[in-house]
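Quick one, probably user error.
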């Protein structure tokens, strides 16, 4: 079956929308630790605060716990809601700290996750404070046009005798 030019033109917006929807389905590798409901919704899931754990992919023995609001209701159920740009982070040493044999960038995105269908992302940035032998983690959200100044920061001191390999 071949499509005429006018049929292809009518399908373009739908194809673009489908492509955007599929690209929004990529999630960061996280493990949900728990959630608490904040607002009851008669139809669809409740609004809630979720806490996820993210293991640093380049630093064994460090886990970051991020809490954030998750919008419920019908929009939340279908992934169309835009979550608030507020998050909190606490990173801790959860095992022996080791660096996968590769030097770290002084500042690098550890992970990101979409918190709206297309335009907003929650990000966690790892920074290296070599002078104090500490890893600093910052979380914030950004948008395609304008981000949010709301942020949260935490630090994980690397044990004495362990040197952070930096590029």
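Nope, works fine. Designed sequence:
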């Amino acid at each position: 079956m071949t499509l005429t030019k006018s049929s292809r033109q009518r399908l373009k917006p739908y194809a673009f929308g489908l492509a955007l929807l599929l690209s929004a389905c990529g999630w960061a590798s996280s493990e949900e630790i728990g959630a608490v409901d904040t607002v009851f919704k008669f139809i669809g899931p409740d609004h809630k605060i979720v806490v996820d754990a993210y293991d640093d992919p380049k630093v064994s023995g460090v886990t970051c716990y991020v809490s954030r609001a998750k919008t419920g209701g019908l929009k939340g159920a279908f992934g169309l809601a835009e979550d608030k740009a507020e998050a909190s982070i606490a990173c801790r040493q959860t095992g022996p700290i080791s660096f996968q044999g590769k030097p770290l960038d002084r500042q690098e995105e550890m992970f990101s996750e979409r918190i709206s269908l297309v335009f907003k992302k929650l990000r966690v940035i790892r920074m290296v404070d070599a002078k104090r032998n500490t890893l600093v983690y910052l979380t914030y959200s950004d948008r395609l046009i304008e981000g949010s100044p709301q942020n949260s920061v935490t630090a994980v001191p690397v044990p004495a005798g362990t040197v952070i390999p930096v590029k």
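Strands lie at 31-39, 47-55, 59-70, 87-99, 107-114, 120-129, 134-143, 151-157.
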